[in-house]
Amino acid sequence: xxxxxxxxxxxxxxxxxxxxxxxxxxxxxxxxxxxxxxxxxxxxxxxxxxxxxxxxxxxxxxxxxxxxxxxxxxxxxxxxxxxxxxxxxxxxxxxxxxxxxxxxxxxxxxxxxxxxxxxxxxxxxxxxxxxxxxxxxxxxxxxxxxxxxxxxxxxxxxxxxxxxx
Length: 165
Fold this sequence. Notes:
Elements: H1 21-40, H2 59-75, H3 94-113, H4 134-160
Helix pairs in contact: 1-4, 2-3, 2-4
């Protein structure tokens, strides 16, 4: 019999956003960003960086990867090895990776705050690559963050039984 108490978090309901397309997209993206950050926050070492599945995916690596995706999509950072973004450095603490993720989200939101036309390209200050539309970038980030938040749900439950958003 398993005597470990499962830690249940109350599920957070999807956001009640404004009526505009921009408010809806940004509301759902921020909702998913908060969900994955919460999954990583408080996760114990070394399990937070230990692969629980054959692919090598680990909870801390998921958040680090999303940091790179945010920075690439909205800030124009160039990533040459996406697979490497899933592997945090051994010296990186949970707090370090969370702080970098939150900083990337804040910088991305500053870019998005200046965008009023969803059909316009993302204004990437540091990239020579063609930029997608803001609408496409937001939908892609919702998909990417949601996908990895689902992975994080499973990994966190395997680590310490914590469930919920």
